[in-house]
Amino acid sequence: MLVLSGLFVSGSEILIPKMIQHFIDVIYPAKDYTAFGYLLLAIAGLCVVMFVAAMAQNTLQRVIREKAARDLQVAVFQKLRKLGFSYYERHPVGETLSFLNTEVAAIQEIYRQYLPGIIQDAIFAVVAVSILFTIDVKLTLLLIPCFLLYYLVGPYYEKKAAKVGKMTADNRVQFNKQIYESISALPEFRAYGRESWDLQRVLERLNLLVKNNLRVILYAYLRGTVRRLCTYSGAIAVFLYGAYLIKHDQLSVGGFVAFTILYFFAIFKMTVVITNLTEQRLLMFQGEILYHFMHQKPDVQEVPQPVLAEIRGRIEFNEVHFGYPSRPDVIRGFTLDIRAGEKIALVGTSGNGKSTILKLAARFYDPLSGEIKLDGVPLNQLALEQIHDAMGYVFQETYLFGTTVRDNIRFGRPDASDEQLYAAAEAAYAHEFILQLPEGYETIVGERGVKLSGGQKQRISLARLFLKNPAIVLLDEATSALDNQSERKVQLALDHLLKNRTTITVAHRLSTIRKADRIIVMDQGCIAEAGTYDALMAMQGLFYRLSEGLELAGEEEEVS
């Protein structure tokens, strides 16, 4: 439909020169005013057709553009959700955001302008040249060298422009990444007095981007200059040889006028086609970046359907090995059978893989080797949605959305009633401080909860957990930001929540560790000791030394 409406516009434009020729050669010499009136009516009708077709074309272009952009953005966002956490460790957030903005906008521009325009204008140019042959073959043959030179002069400059265009696309991704980093790390830049240094980095990247853009513009200017010379040369040839043909009665004045108009029409459409092809080629470099991104395989492959009717909570680690690109041996031969309802505490010095065990249990990653089972079924045979629905995860760093307190707590269970939400907040000892906020539960917490203290954010995170009421609970330093009095209160509530629930806790406070059914002491990615608090203290081994004063806090920096 889009191409059809474009053809109506082009067809109407092509007919007008022939009508002018008919007026000059037939109607005017005969003084046929009736035919002149009909001709005016025909031209007016063509103008109406052109107007309606142009409106339809523009409307369809906008609709196609917006739908294509929406579908592509949804596809990119869904792809981002499916990619494993290791992808985000390798690629900065600014680079990832570029896929949703710059690269999608490039594809959107192709749909909006270049793709339909190229088809329509190419057809117009071919038809126009064909009509030139019907007016005068010799005059048209004279223009063939100009047409050929016009088409052939571009590849040299386009090749150079394409090379720089690819560099520009890569530079734009890097620039977006750097801008995001500059905004995210603004407190650090100010604290260390490095704002000028950061500005210099951004300016260097921006200058490189501008430099490459100017090179593309230069090549486009040189290409355009040569093509204008071809156009003017052809026009001079048409006027000189056309005058000769008219003088010797081999071409009518009307035919000469129609020929000249169609020649400039054809040259103009060729210019548009070639320019659009060049611009589209430059945009396709950004499309190529997006293409490679969309064809990346997720690290964690999901099965279409779960195989468990109900999750009870037994978790088995069998000879699990795992590592990150920069740290290949975080977990080495980890074997542990956690009974349903059992409470496990993971302890050890920083960087020994405690938080990684939680992420593997939640299948944020798949192990490099070995196997993890849930209720006897390998995790990779369960739907991720079922795994995550059954688990409640409280991270070291609480993430709050820039909306209300109520919405942040309800995130744990969207269908919960207000009464259930308030009960969860009270259980997490958050209800009292929430009521003291300016708007209570309707208070906007700001981006990432910037308006709240660390302890308040952590209590809201725990309220989410209480509201979700999961079968399996994963706690990564869940009370580290609380003062001793608040922690004692929250710990009492946690004791009630965690009763008969499988729980894996990463903790450094002995008050939390003592309550575990088993304590797993990790060292260099392996289980060094395991047992109850009393048994481990009696052994006077690694746990005993840690409890005597070594730091039990922290986690591997790469994933915290």
TrEMBL record:
Keywords, in A-Z order: ATP-binding, Membrane, Nucleotide-binding, Transmembrane, Transmembrane helix
Q: GO: which molecular function terms?
A: ABC-type oligopeptide transporter activity; ATP binding; ATP hydrolysis activity
Annotated TM spans: 35-56, 114-133, 229-246, 252-274
- Record membrane topology: Multi-pass membrane protein
Under the cellular component aspect of Gene Ontology, which terms does the record hold? plasma membrane
- Major place of localization? membrane
Where the record annotates domain ABC transporter, the positions are 315-549
Similarity-based family: Belongs to the ABC transporter superfamily.
Query: Under what name is this protein listed?
Result: ABC transporter ATP-binding protein
Q: Which organism is it from?
A: Paenibacillus psychroresistens
